[in-house]
């Protein structure tokens, strides 16, 4: 892997040199840092210390127009949406970048989802390694790390006055073309500083969950009566699902009239009571604990068995943000204990 | 006074009674400062209960969700649901009974004099990354926080939840049994609302635009609110559809405005909606504006008196009628 | 034609036939895809479904109840239930609906050649079985037999009666009908389908049994087929769930680890048993 060095004070020049692309970065300001489009790089105030802002919406927006329609003489005309512009996402965390590796097979296998795929193809991911993992992080338990390059095109690690730049993919190398003059070769000393920084971050992660063979344990645990209590606190909101980088459920709605309008997809959550309700009123999962169990099964058993990835990157947002402390680490550990594994 | 000890003793007795189906209380959470709601069915489980300034949740929410803990509504049968409430939480039960959302004889209310609860976001910012179970206690005007091996004291005003700085009374209303403790009574002049009201229309519009654009419509505010319990919420309905499923400022504004108006005269300002919001939207500003209006127009505060009728079925001849032609 | 699997195509309503009345009427729509290229590439197999809808209202996953041997058009039997199906019920011949598909795993008709096909249906559940009934009817020499056991709550709730009578008359199939309760003018069997199945005692030898109907009926029919000594790989069913994307991405229709839209709706009994805990 090619490695370079970028002086931190040149960061904005670096971003400007990426040239002619839509830039999305974590912008400070207001009550919360959010990943948003940066129109004026010089004026923007980046917040690279934030760990809560989500990036799922870059590839999988909360609202996505699938097509517009209007009635024409004797029928309906369907107008497909435009291909997304070339985009660079800067400052994405390694866990969030890994989430796209997990989502790729879901959206592209069997049937090609053009909305996701086109955004994926048009987007370069420049990551920022985590220096201060928080008490909700547990990425090593799912095969990640605060300095993982999986899913990234480029990774920047803060080693003091400079960023240690790892150019992970061909696409990353191509994207950095215009910024070449701002980079200098990384030395052996820089390499050691990088290793020290990585080790320091990794040591800060203090929570973990044993996921060995979990995809086999969970189906065995399906009928355990304890699920009722494990899921009893859940209030059926969508906080965990919407903030989860790997949750992908969506609803399709039509807006407008039969004469003119659009069909769009919007995020949906399997935790909502109406998620599976039939037009007849029947609901296969009317219990909150059934829905919680389904979410655990889906992320740690069905998804890995069908697509080969655990549908979790260990970011811990669901744990931190849950209003009632439903904690998947606690749930999965309890399930394992109950099955004596 | 050790509220935890008293509460456990009460719970042991209550759970042993034949007419009680379950008890909803608080227990130690999974890490750090977290506390979680729990549903107990056996006297042996009583020692799981705790009571501390970390007990922020309004447990009465579970009275109106479609199932209660491990027991579904049909499982409960003829047994009562016992629930632990703070002063603010107890007002919810008064409102629910006044509007026939629940029957008073179906619940057994265990009140606790809470000295105040923390603002969890402020606490976790000040004492970040706690993993081992941490403890917080409040005596007089001082919090004592034990976290990751060290103990620190912090003045009450610096970490307490905003609602506890204007708590009219921390003595729960309409209880069957009480865990006594320090009593306080503060005034609430709605200074925060007046400040917002004093801003220009453009400033206020900008304020709500900035905050409500961040809303991701996770429905946590609605689901955590004990007074939002319509079997088919108007904000979900598709036939007819009032709020689109697409998430943008106009739809978000409609969502929150509609919910706030549906809570006018009913909201007890427990603040849970704002606490649970993952996007840090100041929802209480909206609810408190309506509470202030209700107080000024009708001299009414929701839930402070269990004998009180619901606002919209109480008519006084002197009620303002500018809107009536 | 687009590579985008979410894009629907115009289909003209050719014929609308009222099957049943009441609060939840059923109509059978015959539709023809307007674009000849789309029509040509829409090669559905018996048991598959399509997303049928009206832009501005929405789409619903409906089984294609016509056999691929009926060329040039597609038929859907739709019960008026919710927002989309109510709007579809307003359509008349000449109107345009939009559809996309075909989706799902079909009945393994090639594997079943030489066998006797036993279809057990309840109510509107006959619609997903009709493509296989008609496919066997049109390829009758490839199959050793066609037997239909079908019931509904009342005689008015029975669908496709004319076709069933025709099959019986032409001796293409044996047809046994039943209704749940006594009804004026009904001279046929009275009793629930699962019990009627036991009464008729069909032999499992070289037979494939397929069932569809209300979930409770499916449950008992499957149990009774096992009682009649049908082996697990001789029994098939077709399931339903709320579906949105139709292609296994939106997460709505999963039962256990399968998606009904993509891995179903046709399931063998062995598969169905693994799904039972989550149903």
User: Helix-strand pattern of chain C, N to C?
Assistant: EEHEEEHEEHEHEEHEHEEEEH
Named CATH topology of the largest domain in chain C: Rossmann fold
Q: Can you tell me the overall shape of chain B?
A: globular
The helix/strand class of chain B is: alpha/beta
Level-2 CATH architecture of the largest domain in chain C: 3-Layer(aba) Sandwich
Approximate helicity band of chain B: 25-40%
What is the CATH first-level class name of the largest domain in chain C? Alpha Beta
Rg estimate of chain C, integer Å? 18 Å
Number of helices of chain B: 12
Helicity range of chain C: 10-25%
Strand arrangement, major sheet of chain B: 2-1-5-6-10
Radius of gyration of chain B: 20 Å
Main pleated-sheet profile of chain C? 7 strands, mixed
Q: Structural class of the secondary elements of chain C?
A: alpha/beta
Q: Beta fraction of the residues of chain C?
A: 25-35%
Span between termini of chain B: 57 Å
Total count of domains of chain C: 3
Indicate the overall shape of chain C. Answer: globular
Report the count of strand segments of chain B.
Answer: 10
Low-confidence stretches of chain B: none
Quick gist of this model?
With 341 residues, chain A is α+β, with helices and mostly antiparallel strands. Chain A has helices at residues 11-17, 56-59, 94-108, 114-122, 170-175, 188-203, 214-220, 226-230, 239-243, 288-307, 317-321, 328-338; strands at 2-7, 22-27, 34-37, 63-72, 75-80, 87-92, 123-128, 154-158, 162-167, 183-185, 250-257, 260-267.
Label this structure with key terms.
heterotrimer; A: 341 residues; 2 domains; 8-stranded mixed β-sheet; 12 strands; C: 279 residues; alpha/beta; Elongation Factor Tu (Ef-tu), domain 3; Rossmann fold; Dihydroorotate dehydrogenase B (pyrk subunit), domain 3; 3 domains; 15 strands
Describe the overall structure.
- The complex is a heterotrimer of chains A (341), B (325) and C (279).
- With 341 residues, chain A is an alpha+beta fold.
- Helices cover 32% and strands 22% of the residues of chain A.
- Chain A is built from twelve helices and twelve strands.
- An eight-stranded mixed sheet of chain A has the order 3-2-6-7-8-9-1-10, with helices on both faces.
- The longest helix of chain A is centred in the C-terminal third of the chain and has 20 residues, at 288-307.
- In chain A, 49% of the residues are buried.
- The model of chain A has no long low-confidence stretch (mean pLDDT 93).
- In chain B, the strands form three sheets. In chain B, strands 2-1-5-6-10 form a five-stranded mixed sheet.
- Chain B is globular, with a radius of gyration of 20 Å.
- Chain B has helices at residues 3-16, 61-64, 73-76, 87-98, 120-126, 156-159, 191-197, 201-212, 220-224, 249-263, 272-276, 283-298, and strands spanning 20-28, 35-40, 67-68, 71-72, 80-85, 107-112, 135-139, 142-147, 150-155, 177-179.
- Chain B has 325 residues and is of the alpha/beta class.
- The model of chain B has no long low-confidence stretch (mean pLDDT 92).
- Chain C folds into three domains: 9-103, Elongation Factor Tu (Ef-tu), domain 3 (Beta Barrel), CATH 2.40.30.10; 116-238, Rossmann fold (3-Layer(aba) Sandwich); 241-279, Dihydroorotate dehydrogenase B (pyrk subunit), domain 3 (Ribbon).
- In chain C, helix 6 links the parallel strand 11 (207-212) and strand 12.
- Chain C is globular and about 50 Å long.
- At the A-B interface, helix 9, strand 11 and strand 12 of A face strand 2, strand 3, helix 9 and helix 11 of B.
């Amino acid at each position: 892997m090619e490695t370079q060095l970028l002086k931190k004070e040149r960061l904005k020049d670096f971003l400007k040199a990426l040239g002619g692309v839509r830039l999305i970065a974590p912008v400070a300001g207001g009550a919360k840092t959010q990943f948003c489009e940066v129109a004026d790089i010089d004026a923007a105030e980046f917040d690279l210390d934030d760990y809560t802002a989500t990036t799922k919406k870059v590839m999988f927006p909360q609202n996505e127009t699938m097509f517009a329609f209007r009635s024409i003489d004797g029928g309906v005309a369907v107008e497909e949406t435009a291909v997304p512009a070339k985009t660079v996402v800067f400052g994405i965390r390694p866990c969030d970048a890994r989430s796209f590796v997990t989502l790729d097979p879901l959206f592209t296998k069997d049937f090609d989802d053009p909305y996701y795929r086109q955004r994926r193809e048009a987007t370069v991911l420049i990551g920022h390694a985590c220096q201060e993992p928080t008490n909700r992080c547990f990425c090593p338990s799912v095969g990640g790390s605060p300095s993982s390059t999986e899913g990234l095109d480029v990774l920047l690690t803060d080693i003091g006055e400079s960023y240690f730049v790892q150019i992970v993919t061909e696409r990353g190398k191509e994207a950095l073309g215009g910024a070449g003059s701002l980079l200098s070769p990384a030395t052996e000393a820089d390499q050691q500083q990088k290793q020290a920084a990585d080790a320091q971050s990794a040591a800060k992660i203090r929570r973990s969950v044993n996921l060995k063979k979990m995809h086999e344990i969970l189906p065995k645990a399906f009928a355990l009566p304890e699920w009722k209590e494990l899921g009893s606190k859940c209030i059926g909101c969508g906080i965990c699902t919407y903030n989860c980088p790997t949750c992908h459920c969506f609803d399709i709605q039509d807006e407008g009239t039969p004469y003119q309008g659009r069909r769009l997809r919007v995020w949906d959550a399997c935790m909502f009571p109406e998620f599976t309700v039939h037009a007849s009123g029947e609901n296969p999962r009317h219990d909150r604990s059934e829905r919680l169990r389904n979410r655990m099964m889906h992320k740690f058993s069905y998804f890995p068995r069908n697509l080969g990835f655990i549908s979790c990157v260990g970011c811990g947002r669901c744990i931190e943000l849950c209003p009632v402390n439903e904690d998947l680490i606690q749930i999965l550990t309890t399930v394992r204990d109950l099955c004596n594994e | 006074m050790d509220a935890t000890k008293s509460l456990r003793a009460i719970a042991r007795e209550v759970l042993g009674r034949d007419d009680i189906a379950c008890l909803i209380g608080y227990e130690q959470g999974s890490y750090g400062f977290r506390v979680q709601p729990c549903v107990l069915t056996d006297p042996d489980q009583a020692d799981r209960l705790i009571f501390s300034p970390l007990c922020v949740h309004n447990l009465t929410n579970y009275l109106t969700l479609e199932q209660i803990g491990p027991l579904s509504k049909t499982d409960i049968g003829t047994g009562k649901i016992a629930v632990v409430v703070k002063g603010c939480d107890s007002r919810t039960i008064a409102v629910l009974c006044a509007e026939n959302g629940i029957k008073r004889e179906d619940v057994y209310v265990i009140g606790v004099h809470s000295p105040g609860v923390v603002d969890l976001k402020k606490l976790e910012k000040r004492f970040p990354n706690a993993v081992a179970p941490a403890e917080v206690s409040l005596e007089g005007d001082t919090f004592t926080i034990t976290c990751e091996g060290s103990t620190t004291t912090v003045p009450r005003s610096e970490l307490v939840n905003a609602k506890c700085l204007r708590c009219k009374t921390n003595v729960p209303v309409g209880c069957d049994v009480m865990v006594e403790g320090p009593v306080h009574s503060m005034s609430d002049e709605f200074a925060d609302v007046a400040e917002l009201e004093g801003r220009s229309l453009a400033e206020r519009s900008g304020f709500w635009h900035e905050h409500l654009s961040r809303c991701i419509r996770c429905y946590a505010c609605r689901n955590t609110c004990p007074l939002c319990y319509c079997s088919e919420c108007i904000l979900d309905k598709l036939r007819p559809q009032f709020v689109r499923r697409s998430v943008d400022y106009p739809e978000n504004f409609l969502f929150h405005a509609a919910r706030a108006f549906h809570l006018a005269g009913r909201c007890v300002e427990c603040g849970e909606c704002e606490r649970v919001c993952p996007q840090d939207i100041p929802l209480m500003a909206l609810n408190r504006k309506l509470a202030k209006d209700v107080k000024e127009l009708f001299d009414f505060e929701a839930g402070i008196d269990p004998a009180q009728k619901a606002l919209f079925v109480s008519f006084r001849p002197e009620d303002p009628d500018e809107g009536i032609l | 034609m687009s590579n985008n699997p979410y894009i629907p195509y115009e289909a003209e309503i050719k014929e609308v036939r009222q099957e049943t009345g009441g609060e939840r009427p059923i109509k059978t729509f015959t539709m023809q895809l307007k674009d000849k290229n789309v029509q040509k590439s829409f090669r559905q197999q018996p048991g598959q479904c399509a997303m049928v809808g009206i832009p501005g209202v929405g789409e619903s996953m409906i089984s294609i109840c016509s056999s691929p041997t009926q060329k040039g058009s597609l038929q859907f039997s739709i019960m008026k239930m919710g927002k989309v199906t109510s709007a579809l019920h307003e359509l008349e011949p000449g109107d345009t609906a939009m559809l996309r598909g075909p989706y799902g795993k079909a009945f393994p008709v090639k594997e079943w050649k030489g066998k006797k096909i036993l279809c057990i249906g309840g109510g509107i559940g006959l619609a997903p079985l009709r493509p296989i009934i008609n496919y066997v009817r049109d390829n009758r020499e490839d199959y050793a037999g066609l037997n239909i056991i079908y019931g509904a709550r009342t005689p008015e709730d029975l669908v496709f009666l004319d076709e069933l009578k025709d099959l019986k008359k032409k001796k293409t199939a044996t047809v046994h009908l039943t209704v749940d309760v006594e009804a004026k003018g009904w001279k046929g069997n009275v009793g629930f389908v699962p019990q009627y199945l036991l009464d008729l005692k069909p032999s499992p030898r070289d037979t494939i049994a397929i069932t569809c109907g209300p979930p409770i009926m499916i449950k008992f029919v499957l149990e009774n087929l096992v009682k009649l000594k049908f082996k697990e790989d001789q029994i098939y069913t077709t399931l339903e769930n709320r579906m949105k994307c139709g292609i296994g991405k939106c997460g709505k229709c999963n039962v256990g680890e399968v998606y009904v839209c993509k891995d179903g709706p046709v399931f063998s009994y062995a598969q169905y048993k693994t799904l039972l805990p989550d149903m």
